[in-house]
Specification:
CATH superfamily of the domain at 96-252 and 287-337 in chain A: Glycerol-3-phosphate (1)-acyltransferase
Strand content of chain A: 5-15%
Number of helices of chain B: 13
Structural class of chain A: alpha/beta
Order of helices and strands of chain B: EHEEHEHEHEEHEEEHEEHEHHHHHH
Distance between the termini of chain A: 76 Å
CATH class of chain B: Alpha Beta
Strand content of chain B: 15-25%
Low-confidence stretches of chain A: none
Largest sheet of chain A: 7 strands, mixed
CATH architecture of chain B: 3-Layer(aba) Sandwich
Strand order of the largest sheet of chain B: 3-2-1-4-5-6-11
Helix content of chain B: 40-55%
Number of helices of chain A: 13
Radius of gyration of chain B: 21 Å
Mean pLDDT of chain A: 89
Oligomer: heterodimer
CATH topology of the domain at 96-252 and 287-337 in chain A: Glycerol-3-phosphate (1)-acyltransferase
Radius of gyration of chain A: 25 Å
Strand order of the largest sheet of chain A: 1-9-6-2-5-3-4
Chain lengths: 343, 349
Amino acid sequence: MIQPTARARRRSSKKAEIVRPAGGFRLPKPVRRLQRQAPLYALQGLGELSLRLRQMTGREVIDLNRIMELVQFIYKQQELARRGPNYTVDEFGFDPEWTESFLPAFKLLYRDYWRVETTGVENVPAAGRALLVANHAGVLPWDGTMIKTALFADHPHPRHVRALVASLFMGMPMLSWFLRRTGQTVGHPDDTLRLLERDELVLVFPEGVRGTGKTFKDRYRLRRFGRGGFVSTAIRARAPIIPISVVGSEEIYPMVGDLPPVARLLGLPYFPVTPFWPWLGPLGMIPLPSKWRIQFHAPVHVEDHPPHAADDQHLVMALSDEVRDTIQQGIYDNLKLRRGVFL
Amino acid sequence: MTPNRVLVTGVSNPLGAEVARRLAGQVPHLFGCDVADPVSALEEMDFVHADTRHAVIGKLIRQLRIDTVVHLAVMIDSPHDERSIHETDVIGTMNVLAGCAAPTSAVRKLIVKSSQSVYGAGPADPSFFSEEMTSHERATSSITRDLLEMEQLVSEFALRNEACTSTVLRLGFRVSDDTTLGRYLSLPIVPTFAGFDPRLQLLHEDDAAEAIVRATLGEHPGVFNVAAGGVVLLSQAIAIMGGRAAPVLPPYGRWLGRMALRATVRIDLPAHLADVIAFGSVTDCARLESEFRWKPAHSSRGVMDALARGKEVELIESPSPPQEYELQVYLQRRRREGRNGANRLAAHR
């Protein structure tokens, strides 16, 4: 190949684009400088304030680490917005980088709002497939987000959990987009099998919307675990089942009633009525700060069964009941360990 | 069986033209038929004006002693009304199959173009469609129903005629200047359904043609999904094209969104595509890879990048000028008469 001469190269090369600032009104230079440096000054001020307060009261009033996490969160969001279309999602539409950027916010909820105490997290393998099975409660699936956060906050090898959600949520605007992008997929046996075969952690709520839609007086009473489909899938994928008991999620929205006609009208499985919703409008959607406990139980090794055992309905139902009993027992244990609903 | 006398129906659409161009050097006798004139003439191909909606197509298949039929006259993304799409897809395929099944027919291989639209798209669907997942219950759009009916006809034909291998290729969504999806994604401001950002799986035009050619030259009976690897999010695809996504279409009532699109940006998005840009549709192409030992060269992301570059998606270089077309037709006719019309001419005299 003939090397082009300097002149030819100069002629054929693309000219540098001159980026012009947007026309119109611009603030004067000192104001703009102040604008740029305001976050820095604010942080400095906060730092001094926290120091003073610590000297005065003798304890940590403003935790600077938390503040820094928040600042990092904002900067991370700006950085993500800048990457344009240059990112890849997996075939399920999962964007790990984007998901991780939300972790500080969820960790805040996890540590400070619901003060989640997690036990038995070592039962979750650091690598390889497993099917996590948990009880489902609360009107909105906050328990799923907290289990996902728990594995990031407390597991020695942070891992993403891929939860299975009801197809109903996949038809909802915003929710469908957020759920897919953060790694969730439809609760379909094919999807479960596919994810497990990729050695992922899959979280399933066998109670489904029957669990989230139960009223406050039925709290902590497990519903039927479907038809045990999750057990057959686990046997087929040769993945251990890890039961999880979640305590505290029942009290975030104390559902005192249900309005089936309204639910039918909106195409929802239930329309909750809580002391705050729908009376206070969007404010009623703020979950109550109950005290949570999450317990990961020892794995049930269903992978020891041969693959054809997946069609043995008797065995499948027996295993499903075993998992259900473990979770129910775990709920009772953790309720005893909890001093009060909001303590 | 190596194909000897090949008939390509629907040869005048860009995909048909590309398939014919690729087959031209590889099969001894190539025939093409369509209702419209081809965009560019091909010297090796004999073009016949024939409408699959009429029984004449069966006569054509028998008279030309065709042994391989590549049925591409299936309308999926077309501005025609539902009725004429149904006529072409179902009645047309029925006529072609009747021609292939006739006792005197020599057809030993049949390739039918279908589409990923056969699965429809909805919120309750699994993340990946494998070939068995078609169902009449999910068929919400007319095109899905038509394709299901058409594939039903083909499978019945395959059961009755075991001597004939039939291949159905469910092609993924293609984006180029002449597909609705391509035009939609190329808008400067793209109205999308508020709160939805589905996964899109696409197929490059080259890969679509290549799959059809491979099915024609090889021996691969069955139904196959043909689509690019990986997915690209709708918002990502729009950003690659340099446009901006405007989530302004109402999330419920897709017909309303379609009406708004027609009124504002003059894009008549068919119902099945409206579902796709709300919920996405992704297929599992594992069967294609294991049976054909080949997979599409471009990934979904690559297809989008190619469209954005605007070079590689251009299928046919440039349509040849009209004079050249006339010349080709004249030469074809002369060749044909020179070959098999000699004795007929003699009889006339």
